[in-house]
Amino acid sequence: MLTVAVLALDGVIPFDLSTPIEVFSRTRLPDGRPAYRVRVCGLGGPVDSGAFPLTPPWGLDALADADTIIIPGCADPAAPVPPRVLGALRSAAADGTRIASICAGAFVLAATGLLDGQRATTHWLVTKRLAEAYPEVDVDPDVLYVDNGQFLTSAGAAAGLDLCLHLIRRDHGSAVAADAARLSVMPLEREGGQAQFIVHDQPPTPRGSELEPVLKWMQDNADRTLSLDDIAEQAGMSCRTLNRRFREQTGTTPLQWLLRARIRQAQHLLETTDHSVERIAGQAGFGSSTAFRERFKKIVGTSPYAYRAAFQTTEAR
């Protein structure tokens, strides 16, 4: 069982604090065992969260035993970070502990110097302030989160949930992360192409709707070259009506839905087989490996090779 330490300091944002506690505490392995133990750590004594006071059960010494440290957002990004906290974080980092921040928690992580020379993000309202306060940090305001390996940062509170799901997927694979996402009523990928590694296990399917049969047909035939006319003929609708019904019931177009189904199929093959990228491009219906690489990187945020390196199962290797 892995240990997640959540750091609680004065001014901590309650939602940013509760998100990792809730997500990691409820995550279960396939055999039903808890995947994580969660410890809320602080300087000792009560912490003012604005909404309510809380007293962390563990002190800073517990950070040394954690596999992952989460730094939640704080109400005042400019508030000085206690030297004891900076020292504890630097010491944990030196031992190889993974450290992730949510929202303005990036300011605490940046204050340690651990983000110098690395790409990072935070809430869009304060990305400029982060870049000005820590010019050695490469601040990217356009992503939900950034994974540098040992150090990770995320944007606003909802992006903190994206980050937690990403960490679960890194630790335990897609199936466990998908279960955690369902418990959180959260998709594994949000619109915008910024979710990097996190994706739906399957594209959204409105159960019991008139589109369900054609969606299943599209999934079963995703390896074929399908046009909008082909899909409309299968659905028994005009292209215009099909597009309208798709947007109403899935929030996207037929061809975008099909693209997501193909991407998910490609991810599954990259995770579970040693097939070449060229072969997977054909199996997933992309035709050429060039088109596959371009679309995969645009949607997933990384190349097929990098995705495989990060998420291929031990059995596949």
UniProtKB/TrEMBL annotation:
Cross-referenced CDD domains: GATase1_AraC_1
Superkingdom to which the source organism belongs: Bacteria
InterPro entries membership: Class_I_gatase-like, DJ-1/PfpI, Homeodomain-like_sf, HTH_AraC, INH-QAR
Segments forming domain HTH araC/xylS-type: 212-310
KW Coiled coil (keyword) present: no
Keyword Ion transport in record: no
The entry's keywords: Transcription, Transcription regulation
Membrane-spanning parts: none
Gene3D superfamilies referenced in this protein's UniProt entry, alphabetically: 3.40.50.880, Homeodomain-like
UniProt-listed Pfam families: DJ-1_PfpI, HTH_18
Official protein name in the record: Helix-turn-helix domain-containing protein
Species the sequence originates in: Actinoplanes flavus
